[in-house]
Protein: Short-chain dehydrogenase/reductase
Organism: Psophocarpus tetragonolobus
Amino acid sequence: MGHKEKSKERKEKRLQEISLLRTIPYADHQRWWSKETIAVVTGGNRGIGFEISRQLADHGVTVILTSRDGSVGVESIKVLQEGGLQDVACHPLDVLDTSSISQFSDWLKENYGGLDILVNNAGVNFNFGSDNSVENAKLVIETNYFGTKHMIEAMIPLMKSSSAGGRIVNVSSRLGRLNGKRNRLENEELRKQLSDVDSLSEELIDGMVSTFLQQVEDGSWKSGGWPPTFTDYSVSKLAVNAYTRLMAKKLSERPDGEKIYINSYCPGWVKTALTGYAGSVTVEDGADSGVWLSLLPDQAITGKFFAERREINF
C-alpha cells in the first residue's frame, strides 16, 4: 500500500471515529451552555453552515442563522423547525457590507443582548476541479478574509461575559497552511514573518492580501510565490489562519469572565456547493470540528488550527 492509500485509510478511519463520537451525548458536567447560550453562524442557510447550525441547535444552543438573502434564511429555519429544533432564528447578513453587519449587530443586541458563540462560515470559491482562475480574487479575499475580520470586530463588543468564555470559530482550510508539504507559500521571507506570532500584525496580513491583489491586477501573481492550487482561495484562508493567531494573542489579555477563545479549522473537501459537490467528506463530518470547538468544555484552547478534532500545524 502506497503513502497516498495509507493516508486515505487513516483519514477514513478517523472520520468513522468522529461519527461514533457524535453519537455520545455530552455529560451534564461538560455542558457549560443552555438555550440561553446564543450562537451566530454566518452563511448558515446551506452546506456546512446549515449543518453547524443544525448540530448546535440539536445540542440545545439557541442558533441565529444568517444569510445574504433573508427569504432563504427563513426557509432554512423552517427546515430545522420541522425537524423539531425550535430555538432557531434567522436574520439577513452580507459580510461584505459594513452597514449590513451594523444592522445585524443592532438587532442582535436588542433582541438577544449579545452572543456567546460566533462561527464564521460565510465564504466563496470560484474554482472547481483543476481550475485556478484568479478572475474573482478580489471577491474571494473580501468575503473570506475581510468578511470574517469585520464580523469578529463587530461581534467582540457583543460577546457576553461568562466564566466559560466566548467562542469564535473560523471555518478555514488546509490550503491556507504556511508549512504544508503541498500548496505552501513559496515566499520564504513572508512565510517567516507570518510564522512569528510575536511580530504578527494586522498590517502584515492586510499588506499580504493587498500585494496579492495588486499582482493579480498587473498580471504578475504567478511569479509571486503564492500557493499554486486554488490560489485566491488559499491566500484568503492563509490570511484567516494568520488573523486567528493574531486575535488569539490579543484576546488572551482579557480578564477572567471576559475571555474569548478563537480557533480555526478545516472541514475537509466537503460535498457542498462550494466544491461543486465534488467533495469526499459528508457535510455532517465537515461540520463536526466546528461544533466541537464551539462547545469544548473547560475551553482554554485558543489560536490553534484543527481538522477532524485534532490540532494540525498552521
The chain is about 45% helix and 10% strand. The radius of gyration is 19 Å.
